[in-house]
Amino acid sequence: MIDNTLRLFFALPCPPEQAAAICAWRDDQAIDGRAVPQDNLHLTLAFLGAQPREHLDALLQMAATVHAEAFSLSLDRLTTIGKGFICLQPASTPPALLQLVEALSERLAALGVVLDCRPFLPHLTLSRQARSRAQQPAPDFTWHVDRFVLYRSVNTADGVRYDELGSWPLLP
Length: 172
Ligand code: ATP
Ligand code: MG
What we know:
The protein is an alpha+beta fold. 22% of the residues lie in helices and 40% in strands.
């Protein structure tokens, strides 16, 4: 059967230098579970799930109307959330991050895209399917967030891959 949907989500891509530093630290730690590949590190802003291909243009146009400010993001807590997701989270969430999520959510609702009803929980997943919790403190991994992207999530024989379909700058 032909699948005419795309599995989509808006996210903050972790810049390559920061992703390398985070993975180097992670791989030195006794962190349980399946490590997320360095290229896949991201922070999800809004998960859209399966969307009809023909909605893509409207989503790209919508994202271009988001005018949100750039901000500094400090990921400084190692946490275990959900079913064995070991993550980095910000001890305090920058207001500009919440404003960006709000701007996207409002526009998605106007396009009829229904988001998960759970509240936004900023996190960058380091490892999945962990059976034990992470206990150790984390260094402060900070990056300057100056863009957000729309990803298509693709399942491959080598694991999930995220294709960047669009990228939009945040205001300096
Ligand atoms: P896989 O599910 O193939 O192991 P993945 O979880 O990285 O890999 P997706 O399930 O496509 O890939 O998810 C993409 C991103 O969206 C991930 O950050 C994931 O945590 C997040 N996500 C997935 N489902 C939801 C949901 N229902 N609500 C909020 N975020 C979600
Ligand atoms: Mg998933």
